[in-house]
Design brief:
Elements lengths: L1 H16 L14 E6 L6 H15 L5 E6 L8 H14 L7 E5 L7 H8 L4 E5 L3 E2 L2 H5 L10 E2 L9 E5 L4 H11 L5 E5 L4 H17 L4 E5 L6 H9 L6 E5 L4 E5 L2 E5 L3 H4 L6 E3 L3 H4 L7 E4 L2 H16 L16 E5 H6 L12 E3 L5 H29 L4 H20 L2 E10 L5 E9 L1 H6 L3 H4 L4 H4 L4 H14 L3 E7 L4 E10 L4 E8 L1 H28 L4 H12 L1
Parallel strand pairs: 1-2, 1-3, 3-4, 4-7, 8-9, 8-10, 10-13, 15-16
Antiparallel strand pairs: 5-6, 11-12, 14-15, 17-18, 17-21, 19-20, 20-21
Length: 562
């Protein structure tokens, strides 16, 4: 029985460490890049780096990319670190990578093992720190003191290494928060137990005292508070006197003897009303991410530099000969939407602030439309000028056409409009079968019947000959819930109408507008006759003057067809 307990305990212990271990198969591809991520696979910072490299590798079908995740929070003793080292050795021993990409300083702990396994392999280190501390600080999650710090620059030559510094701009972030919250009395730093946050905690305390020693400081970690407790505390902070800087909120949890890593709890934090700033650009870019912003470098430029460095190494340049990249383009990045939601005005932000998700101004929003419209108007003016110039020989005929169009315009502007409001009666299938007059206007009375003679009467009784057309288009207006326009010829009075039907499905009513277009139709006929006559005249002109006017005829014919 005791033996079974021991076996079970060993099995559970083994399961607890398996999340940090990658699959132990061998890599048979020789042309590949190996990326070793110090943090969890879901870490926004490292995930962005891996995505950038992945996009680059996809453009080269002969090149592959592999990634291994240390999950540093899960490594709390030398044994687990040794297991990760053995996994790397067994999996990648047959073929040496073209280069190593290390994300975060913990991945640099195995630098001697990398040299032993692959020799003088080039290393690209992306790190938030310009120094490396003792191994125990990363395993036991302790801050790296000033005395313990070894500059990364001392490792460049012996380890064939180049650093791309991912500056956290701690001082600048504190100054940004102080600028937006000028009455700040309390500063809260939220971060998990990783070495980077432990070290940042010391740095923030020092820098905060230099800026304003009277500000109360609090460092919150998952070891001090549960996520729910953190949420409760954030709901009660005073947004006008409290500045909050968020780093990360990863923590270990144990269930049924299995230890796992919780990585998404930070998404709950942004649901509070507290104004939260962040060290992670990925938390800022989301329109509804909840983070106000922070001071950071240009992520796009950093990614470009990473790809440029990889390209140089793949073409044969030693990593140790490449200068370190130190971002010099840091600036406040503010999520405009979240800033307003938290009750702050954009006007209080520093002058060099870059706003994300900010609505475009009138000009920026409509500049292409405005420029396109102006260009079209200029082009149209040129076309009309050319047309007038080309048709100068037939100016008299053109003037007649203009006069005709003027008469047409006056006719349209002065024509009366008839209005009828009718109730729609439908069968069991919802198909209109009858219309009942409920209201008419004065123009209707003037042209047809008095109001009291038609209100309450069926349309089939008043205008039986028009019922099929009106019922047909009424059904379309009701079913599609839109305005329908159609022409109608009232044979009894020899009158053309343009009918507009506007349906109201809620009360089964339909508004009918009748625009007398008889004279318009006649005007159009007259205009067509004039154009035909002009075309015939133009043919005669062409026969008299030769080919010199052929272009004019062609242009005029095109114009008249319009």
């Amino acid at each position: 029985m005791n033996m079974k307990k021991y076996v079970l305990a060993f099995f559970l212990c083994f399961i607890s460490i398996t999340p940090i271990l990658a699959q132990r198969d061998h890599i048979d591809i020789s042309n590949y890049i190996l990326c070793i991520n110090s943090y969890a696979e879901s870490s926004p910072w490292s995930n962005r780096m891996i995505s950038t490299v992945s996009e680059y590798v996809q453009k080269n079908p002969k090149l592959a990319l592999y990634a291994e995740h240390m999950n540093t929070l899960m490594i709390d003793n030398d044994t687990i670190l040794g297991e990760f080292k053995n996994m790397i050795s067994q999996k990648y021993e047959h073929h040496r990578p073209r280069l190593l990409i290390l994300l975060g300083n913990p991945s640099l702990l195995l630098r001697d093992e990398y040299r032993e396994l692959w020799g003088d392999i080039p290393i690209v280190l992306c790190s938030e720190e310009k120094f490396i501390g003792p191994k125990d600080t990363y395993i036991y999650k302790q801050p790296v003191t000033q005395a313990e710090r070894v500059p990364i620059s001392q490792l460049a030559d012996p380890y064939n290494l180049v650093l791309l510094y991912s500056n956290l701009y701690l001082r600048e972030n504190i100054q940004l928060i102080s600028h937006i919250i000028p009455d700040m009395k309390k500063f809260i730093f939220i971060g998990d137990e990783r070495e980077i946050n432990q070290t940042n905690n010391l740095e923030i305390q020092t820098k905060l005292k230099a800026i304003n020693p009277n500000i109360e400081y609090q460092y919150i970690t998952p070891q001090k508070m549960t996520t729910n407790q953190l949420l409760d505390s954030l709901y009660h902070v005073d947004p006008n006197t409290t500045g909050i800087l968020f780093a990360s909120w990863f923590y270990k949890t144990t269930f049924a003897g299995n230890t796992s890593l919780v990585t998404n709890a930070h998404k709950l934090i942004v649901t509070t009303t507290a104004p939260i700033f962040t060290l992670n650009m990925a938390d800022i870019t989301e329109e509804n991410g909840g983070m106000i912003g922070g001071y950071t470098y240009d992520q796009k430029h950093y990614n470009q530099q990473l790809i440029h460095t990889i390209s140089e190494i793949l073409t044969g340049k030693p990593a140790r000969e490449i200068p370190f990249y130190m971002p010099s383009d840091g600036a406040p990045i503010i999520n405009y939407t979240i800033l307003l939601r938290k009750g702050f005005s954009p006007s209080i932000c520093p002058p060099n602030t870059h706003f994300l998700n900010k609505p475009l101004g009138f000009w920026k929003q409509n500049k292409y439309f405005i420029m396109g419209t102006l260009s079209f108007m200029i082009l149209l003016a040129i076309v009309f000028f050319y047309r007038i110039h080309s048709l100068n020989s037939i100016k008299k005929a053109q003037q007649k056409e203009i006069d005709a169009m003027t008469n047409y315009k006056n006719l349209v502007n002065n024509m009366p409009i008839l209005y009828m409001q009718e109730e729609v009666l439908a069968d069991k299938n919802g198909i209109p079968v009858e219309l009942i007059y409920r209201n008419v206007n004065a123009h209707f009375e003037k042209n047809f019947f008095r109001k009291e003679e038609v209100v309450g009467k069926k349309a089939s009784e008043i205008f039986p000959e028009s019922m099929p057309d009106f019922l047909h288009f009424t059904q379309i207006a009701l079913s599609e819930n839109k305005v329908i326009t159609f022409p109608y010829y009232f044979k009894k009075i020899d009158t053309f109408y343009d009918i507009v039907l506007k349906a109201n499905r809620q009360n089964n009513m339909i508004d009918v507008f009748c625009l007398n277009s008889t004279e318009l139709h006649k005007a159009q006929q007259k205009l067509s006759t004039i154009n035909n006559k002009l075309a015939m005249s133009l043919d005669e002109l062409i026969s008299c003057h030769g080919n010199g006017i052929c272009e004019v005829k062609q242009f005029y014919a095109t114009s008249t067809n319009r």
